[in-house]
Amino acid sequence: xxxxxxxxxxxxxxxxxxxxxxxxxxxxxxxxxxxxxxxxxxxxxxxxxxxxxxxxxxxxxxxxxxxxxxxxxxxxxxxxxxxxxxxxxxxxxxxxxxxxxxxxxxxxxxxxxxxxxxxx
Length: 120
Known about the structure:
Layout: H1 2-25, E1 31-32, E2 35-45, E3 48-61, E4 64-80, E5 83-90, E6 96-104, E7 107-115
Antiparallel strand pairs: 1-3, 2-3, 3-4, 5-6, 6-7
C-alpha cells in the first residue's frame, strides 16, 4: 500500500513539474499596437512651406518595437513656394517615412518624418 501511495505521489509530482515547465515555455509576451505619428513642417509664409508627415501603427511586445504594420501607414510629402527636388513615402516593416527634398534660397534641405521616432 505504501509503495502505491509513494508511486502515486511521484507520478503526480512529475506531472505537476512537467506542467509548470510547459507553461513556462508558452509565450507570454504582452503585445499592443499603438499609433505613431511624426511630421516635419517648415513654414516661412502662407505661400512658402514644406510638409512631410507619416502616420501608422507599430507592433510593440514587452515594451520593445517589433515592426511597423505597413497596411495602416499613410503619409504626405508636399511643398509650396519652393523648388522640390524629390519627395516620397516609403512603407516598410522596419521603418516607414515621408520626405521632401527642396531648394530654398539656394540651400538644399530635406524635411523628414519617420515611424517610429527612435529609428530616425
